[in-house]
Amino acid sequence: MQFSTCQLNTSATFCSVTYQNLNKGTPVLVAIYNSGQMRSSIIRLKVPNGKVQVVQQSTGANLPTDVICSNSTDTTDCDLFFKDNFASFSTGYYYLKPSTTSNQVTPQTLAPNTVYSINANQSIVNYFIICTNIKIPS
Length: 138
What we know:
Layout: H1 16-24, E1 28-34, E2 39-47, E3 52-56, E4 62-63, E5 65-68, E6 78-86, E7 90-98, E8 114-119, E9 122-126
Antiparallel strand pairs: 1-7, 2-6, 3-4, 3-7, 5-6, 8-9
């Protein structure tokens, strides 16, 4: 059995057990301790890519997840996000399983005055184009 303690503000490669096993296609068991009162929390874990499924160990349910890979110098440094409920002073166990499909959130170019569907009941409208990297002459 391999064990490591991973800190939040490091890259995925520093969580070597998680990183190496997910890259090899081996599931990883993650334990997360809630040191406070009962709450619903967004969990953030470092992963090497967007092809990861999270299974809650106690129920066997697949949890909805998002993966954001925003490190411009390392494309294998990604953050996995999912939400779960914690009892007071409890430990939650999760299987991180390699998946064939990606749940990576990718940026896209939004056209002005266009409706974008979020799900069957929600949508947003982009009314403006936001410009970045504008240089103002002095």
